[in-house]
Design a protein that fits this description.
Strand order of the largest sheet: 1-2-3-4
GO molecular function: DNA binding
Distance between the termini: 61 Å
Helix content: 25-40%
Protein name: AP2 domain-containing protein
Number of strands: 9
Strand content: 15-25%
Length: 209
């Protein structure tokens, strides 16, 4: 090959590799990744001439592009897919291995994800599933801060009470209630009955959250 465009950027397109596609004239095409998340095959001449600089999604109008860096929404989209489908991901055990999936609409298109979720409010927010036992869909996802996420965290496998923040303490022979606030664990006391511990946890949520 006399030239190699792999890795080069043309507007909102980044060349990934040479495509197998060819037109009737034998023109060379390149597989490109648009900032919106879609792949497209573009002729060499169109890239070099600057006549094709995106997949056609007009990402500028959707604020998909940001000078010199990826949008946080785009990083969230990539991370979401990684933890659900990349078996080498450290988070796969808690997502993909549990059957958590990304809906087809989002899996195939960052543009669709962005249209449904909109811009992230600020740096304290990340994507969160309302029902942690269901997948990533427009109906089940919100942008949430740490407080909401702590409240919504899936119960640990070691939890025997069926209630987050409540567990049996074998040392005290009682039910323990606790809550995490700003990364600090606060004890809500020890109780003879599970119901008392659950009530303490509920009051703790009302007080601290």
């Amino acid at each position: 090959m006399k030239f190699n465009l792999t890795g080069k950027k043309f507007g909102n397109l980044k060349v990934i590799e040479k495509s197998d596609k060819k037109d009737k004239h034998g023109a060379v095409f390149w597989k490109c990744l648009c900032v919106c998340g879609r792949y497209t095959d573009v002729r060499t001449g169109h890239l070099n001439a600057g006549t094709t600089t995106s997949c056609g999604c007009n990402p500028g109008s959707l604020k998909h592009a940001r000078k010199g860096q990826e949008r946080p929404e785009y990083r969230a989209w990539l991370a979401m897919k990684t933890r659900c489908y990349n078996t080498n991901s450290k988070d796969y055990e808690n997502y993909g291995a549990r059957g958590i999936k990304v809906c087809d609409r989002w899996l195939k298109s960052y543009k669709a994800f962005y249209e449904d979720m909109g811009e992230r409010p600020d740096g304290n927010y990340s994507i969160e599933r309302v029902d942690v036992n269901k997948g990533y869909t427009p109906e089940n996802c919100i942008w949430a801060n740490k407080t909401v996420q702590n409240r919504n965290t899936r119960k640990k496998k070691s939890n025997t009470s069926g209630c987050k923040g409540v567990h049996w303490n074998s040392g005290h022979k009682k039910w323990s209630a606790r809550i995490s606030v700003n990364y600090k664990r606060i004890s809500l006391g020890y109780y003879d009955t599970l119901e008392e511990a659950k009530n303490a946890r509920k009051k703790g949520e009302e007080k601290y959250w």
